[in-house]
Amino acid sequence: MSYRILFQDKHLVATSKPGGLLVHRSARSSDRVFLLQELRNQIKKRVYPIHRLDRQASGVMVFALSSKDAKALQAAMAAESTKKQYLCFARGHSKDEFSIDRPLTNRSKGKKGEKQEARTDFNTIWRGRIGEGLDCSLLYARLHTGRHHQIRRHLAGETHFIFGDSNYGKGGINNFLRETYELPRMFLHATRLELDHPITGERLELFDPLPDDLRAFWERVTELPAAIVEKL
Asked: What integer pLDDT is reported at residue 62 of this predicted model?
């Protein structure tokens, strides 16, 4: 399989990660195909991971092409000027605009239980209803910090569970959407990443449109306006 390249120069490469694919090897998974190795084989260069996307999430991923560039790219990703935008489809009718700054418990090895500062800004694109009683909202999320499952945990805390989220969502709703409309996975997609190039200073604006599997699900639900996803 060939992965779509969104940007590449001698310092970094940005690609579109499909949903269902792990970024790199994990002791908790028996998977044998990973984005890091596949991309390395595709571009014939060693790649260095800078950030993460959950297995079921899709969208923009950036890798450095040397250890030196990796350090510079990590700093660029952490800068306040960097914009990380995600698209999510969730339960309930969310406010037009809102921010969540609820601290999240660290789940990494050796630091479990520590409270970490976390902030996510949300902007609602559309609100509606599926069937007779499932209220729903399509939202953009912007990360200001990068905590484990941050968007998913922040929305779940407001009862706006992301559809298809098996960790924090509602099993009955997920099963209904899967069986009735063939929801393929969690509806979370990293649509846009804007950052200053760590070496050249050029402003990079990386965009990844809504992938075919989520687009097809949206189009199968008759109550959802097709015109919205045509622009995403």
From this structure: 97
Catalytic residue among 9, 31, 54, 121: 54
Question: Is pLDDT above 60 for 27?
Answer: no
The pLDDT of residue 110 is: 56
Q: Which residue has the higher pLDDT, 36 or 108?
A: 36
- What is each CA distance from 86 to 14, 115, 139, 144, 231, in whole angstroms? 16, 24, 8, 12, 15
Question: Annotated catalytic, 54?
Answer: yes
pLDDT tens digits for 66-82? 999 999 999 999 999 99
CB within 8 A of 182, min separation 6: which ones?
Answer: 216, 217, 220
Domain ranges of the chain: 5-230
Token reading at 97: 């605009």
CATH assignment, 5-230: 3.30.2350.10
- b/e map of 83-98 (b: 16 or more CB within 10 Å)? ebbbbbbbbeebeeee
Provide the token pair at 2: 């060939």
